[in-house]
Specification:
Strand content: under 5%
Structural class: mainly alpha
Order of helices and strands: HHHH
Radius of gyration: 25 Å
Number of helices: 4
Shape: elongated
Low-confidence stretches: none
Length: 85
């Protein structure tokens, strides 16, 4: 393990200490667990920036050269036609 020093607000310290006591663990172990939980959650849930980057990578990938090219202007008509079928 790597030894490090952090500073918490009084509120953060109070809440974290209570959380640790409820679980019967040390304050240091509580910090490790909460950091691990947060890092895992961020890895599991991509950020908005990551989702935008991934979306931009596929823009135009599925373009149909023989398809309609006025969908942005005529989307209401295309939608109405689709529901009539």
């Amino acid at each position: 393990m790597v030894r490090t020093q952090i500073q918490l607000t009084p509120e953060q310290h109070r809440r974290l200490k209570r959380w640790a006591q409820q679980r019967g663990i040390s304050l240091a172990e509580a910090v490790r667990r909460r950091v691990a939980d947060r890092l895992e959650a961020e890895q599991a849930a991509p950020t908005r920036e990551m989702m935008v980057r991934e979306a931009l990578q596929v823009v135009g990938t599925y373009a149909d050269p023989s398809g309609a090219n006025d969908v942005a202007k005529e989307h209401d008509q295309y939608l109405a036609d689709a529901y009539r079928k």
